[in-house]
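Lab meeting, action items carried over

1. Structure of the four-component assembly. Owner: GW. Status: complete.
Input record:
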Amino acid sequence: MVGGGRGAFIGAVHRIASRIDDRWHLVAGALSSDPERARLSAEDLNIAPDRAYSDFREMARAEAAREDGIDAVSIVTPNHMHAGPAIAFLEAGINVICDKPLAATPEQAQQIAAAVQASKARFILTHNYTGYPLMRQAREMIERGDLGEIRLIQAEYAQDWLTESVETAGDNKQAAWRTNPEMAGAGALGDIGTHAFNLLSFVTGLKVEALLADLQSFGAGRQVDDNAHVLLRFANGARGTLWASQVAPGNENGLRLRIYGTKAGIEWSQENPNVMTFAPLGQPKQIVTRGGAGLGTGGNRWTRIPPGHPEGYLEGFATIYTDAADLILGTGDGALLPTIESGLDGMWFIGACQRSSQAGGEWVSR
Amino acid sequence: MVGGGRGAFIGAVHRIASRIDDRWHLVAGALSSDPERARLSAEDLNIAPDRAYSDFREMARAEAAREDGIDAVSIVTPNHMHAGPAIAFLEAGINVICDKPLAATPEQAQQIAAAVQASKARFILTHNYTGYPLMRQAREMIERGDLGEIRLIQAEYAQDWLTESVETAGDNKQAAWRTNPEMAGAGALGDIGTHAFNLLSFVTGLKVEALLADLQSFGAGRQVDDNAHVLLRFANGARGTLWASQVAPGNENGLRLRIYGTKAGIEWSQENPNVMTFAPLGQPKQIVTRGGAGLGTGGNRWTRIPPGHPEGYLEGFATIYTDAADLILGTGDGALLPTIESGLDGMWFIGACQRSSQAGGEWVSR
Amino acid sequence: MVGGGRGAFIGAVHRIASRIDDRWHLVAGALSSDPERARLSAEDLNIAPDRAYSDFREMARAEAAREDGIDAVSIVTPNHMHAGPAIAFLEAGINVICDKPLAATPEQAQQIAAAVQASKARFILTHNYTGYPLMRQAREMIERGDLGEIRLIQAEYAQDWLTESVETAGDNKQAAWRTNPEMAGAGALGDIGTHAFNLLSFVTGLKVEALLADLQSFGAGRQVDDNAHVLLRFANGARGTLWASQVAPGNENGLRLRIYGTKAGIEWSQENPNVMTFAPLGQPKQIVTRGGAGLGTGGNRWTRIPPGHPEGYLEGFATIYTDAADLILGTGDGALLPTIESGLDGMWFIGACQRSSQAGGEWVSR
Amino acid sequence: MVGGGRGAFIGAVHRIASRIDDRWHLVAGALSSDPERARLSAEDLNIAPDRAYSDFREMARAEAAREDGIDAVSIVTPNHMHAGPAIAFLEAGINVICDKPLAATPEQAQQIAAAVQASKARFILTHNYTGYPLMRQAREMIERGDLGEIRLIQAEYAQDWLTESVETAGDNKQAAWRTNPEMAGAGALGDIGTHAFNLLSFVTGLKVEALLADLQSFGAGRQVDDNAHVLLRFANGARGTLWASQVAPGNENGLRLRIYGTKAGIEWSQENPNVMTFAPLGQPKQIVTRGGAGLGTGGNRWTRIPPGHPEGYLEGFATIYTDAADLILGTGDGALLPTIESGLDGMWFIGACQRSSQAGGEWVSR
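Predicted assembly:
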């Protein structure tokens, strides 16, 4: 693991997720660039001192040289610190599991892409919401035509934690880097908008052809967007909207997806992810549960416990790690895993939204 | 009443709504332009034969001349047939209660506006959703600052009844006129989009300064929009979206309003209108019920029965009629009633969306 | 109307309900036993002075004698005042529409039953919740076997308005008579428990064979039950529970019905009455909406407006009045209307619960 | 671990739960009484061959003798197989974490209790639902008086998987032992009723003084109860009901708890466990989320990720394992852990219900 030392947030999530299905052990880390903090963090996590690095380049070199070297590295640093480690490990031939978005700038993204191209190692982006069983179920249903031709996609991801300018408080490390243009590259757009964008792409299989965005920074003194309204046009003629906001009081992690086709519609919300509605035109709406009645084999494949016993965010995340293990060991094809292409697509989304909005709200095509 | 004869839909709704609070009696009507149908429809409704007209002009003249002439006329014809009767009754000095949208074309709308200007009679537009107690409650809460400065408005009205091109079936009279450009003037935009637009304006008191629309006609051979995605910019800097659709399977009358300010957010859905959530930043979200605990006087004023006993669409509609009675009798000021200005605003909304979309999706300012 | 003068509650509800479908006009009343209050109340309601009575016996006599006498009388007095007027009007040959429960005591109930027996006039009890379209839909579904053999019935009606002993406040007239043993005959049991009992009987068509009740009076100084837990055994071997409470904070009018058979289950809640779930074993649960997709003719018959536009409490109540009009005019068979048998059944339920609980919680059979 | 070999269900759940917070490693097991199956199951789980036992007595002896012997054993066998291993490990001085209910018979339960009494080792029962953060939050709120004096408790746990007699199919191992009187000791009552009973006791801190039960076996040929209706009387005068059913179509794991006091009420459902409503009398109902706004320190203590990112069944279960680790290491007091007393209380509940029902439904006191 690179990043994820004391005081970090998402690193701990990755560690739990990787443990759930007992497919990974954490044995090495460059958990902080501060040597002392790296050492103490490694101690906390029972990493042997000789595999507790303070420099990711050294870690890549050393682990590549060991016979019992790591199978993969998790990169859980802020966005602007993805490219450096990703490239170092890819060049060392070590598989990379990287937090999203791909990078803070298009240039960094392209450098990673080049390194992926040049390396035999795998690159996996943790768009974890694609691990929710019902999202995979939805993808299957759409693929086999249950919704008919898709016409409409309404995606949103609303939070409220940046309603006030908490980043100026000094002690809010998460808020600070996520609202720093250089470290984050974008605000709500990159932090959560890319999740919504990735998820709708994953579930529908449709490509956005053009978009138009209206971005705002409502927080006093805020230097990145905290609200994004985006219109979407898809290659097949479908239309959609994507709303990402961190200033909508009452929303914790309101990632919601609604998809309507010529034959049926589906609706899902991340905060109660074990339930989805499926509405075939002219019939009563159905409540589809994770692993529940009538799903066929679909929804049961990525689930650990019986229906009615809720799985949550960590389990969905775990599925990404488990799929990654299968891909790396050759026991699975990783067909559902987010790749470098997902990452580049997300970077296009961020950049296109920013260009559209800076132009006063104009259409931007691929 | 003008319109609303046998086979009509909204006329019956107006009649029930007007009866609920026992403030109106239906005593005269030009229920159809077909004399025989007008006669039979009047008979159905116990209207005396001498007050059963087949021509609205004759009705306006005759009722104006009677000592016991009508206090007001309800106009419940298709959109392109609002201007004629509205102007006739206004000129005869008779108060007009008119279905929405104001008209099928901007020209018709201006003619009505001129007639309102020239007449001492009242003009009331039945944007009935403003009669829901919790929408009036929301308006009060926003007015007194409970939400702080408004930043975001997410409005939508989704239906599914035009997912297939049912208007071509021949026997679907409602679908036929509502998808006929000359009779309706617009599709989803006019039929339901104007409701969402009116409601968000009513509740927030904010003015849309500019908008950008992406309209679609998904139904095969359809000549009006059946889906509208609209970005909104408000005078105070707030941003919003409005989505109106008649092709979203699983949606019956999904009118939903979400409003977020610097201090709190509210969310409401028309299909379960006796409940609204209110989320003050940093506190648990509250479930506010119609007439329920903790509302102050607000929510109780426009309600007939105790909380937990649901009131619905007809009761909200009835409140418009009751307010209208009070306004006309001078026992109320009608401050909450939709007026000719609401109607003209709705016509601007329709026209601006159409112009924006025809230009490929460009911003249109007032 | 007998009762329902100034300051009364349920009388106004009956008046609105009777108006909604335009089948009744209020033309006479003994609205109060206080002559002055009767006169003023009649004036409020535009009842002609010669038909504003202060004595129900006089009213029964006079109206029976008039050629344009009333078609039916609504009795909306407290429970102990049902028998007197009901018998008087039945003896005068005038149809009676009576509020529930049938009476305050078994003796009164028997006297009414005898009068019904002896009269050619109709007797209808306003168990209004049977007028909700989805409850009639549920009844149809059960009748035609959609649920298989019924095994379990979970009924409840929970409120919170008597959590504190508000009846001692002096100015709470509703609380005062409803907690007065002589006027009400029972507490939560009679006021709301009989509604739940009637509704489950109506929907399932099953007969309770034996019951066991644990009644409580939690309110300080309260002389009637404010909470009732009842176990039910049905003739066909089904089991159930009925919970009625007026001391459950957070419940406004929480009337809920859940029914499970060998093939499927249904669940419904009065506070959002336009929605019901139907769960066929081994298939996804369905969201059945009032008048919505896939119902067949059932749910549409007793509804006024399209699905997604909610109807509420008053519309359900109106359906009882409309069915009553049809029954009296011979244009309907009144097959779904609550009758004197429903009333006697409810009185058995109250008495059996009281006997069971007084014995410390023993089984009581029919 | 004892039990939990190939083909078992709950063992895998315990293993995931124990891993989530990285506090336990599985290093030894008697996973099956069949030696070959024990060996293969151990291999699956990377247990060293010398610590893969086929006899739990041998395992207790051997592990007690090792310097690196296990810190605790998980017993995940069917109910009738709890006593044997529990006693063996307790006698060997090894801490025991045991699945619920405590045993299949009162005699077995007493034997375990005696062994706990005689041993210095800890005994922990995995009533995992007490690990849900909001249930611990509710307990805290009740303890500090937020609900006032508790008056009413409505608990239920409804499933539908035994609606048909699937245990006769031959290949349904879970259904087979759970409906076998000797292996299970009781049906729905033991399998899920004890969970509801334990949870209500945990949350309210109230003691059931007397109960009355009506048990049924609806499934054709079924030898244990599949539905239980139970009336409860608490020491403080509160009343309640508990409903456990495995024959209610549409219910997956419908564990629900509703508690009402003199000052407020709370409602919670296990299927969406990150949300609870709190209704202070006379104020709007609040939606309390796991870790969300306004909770004080309470709800955040037993949670891993931010509010709005759902935690589920496995995380709640993990909290039990983590608390157990803290108790055993002395880094926590285990105050919230279910103990042998919880187990004996559950056995009393099962036995009392059975005696009450066999007597035709009579009250049974402690």
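2. GW to write a short summary for the group page. Key points so far: Chain D has two domains: 10-125, 132-307+340-358. The CA atoms of residues 229 and 312 of chain D lie 28 Å apart.
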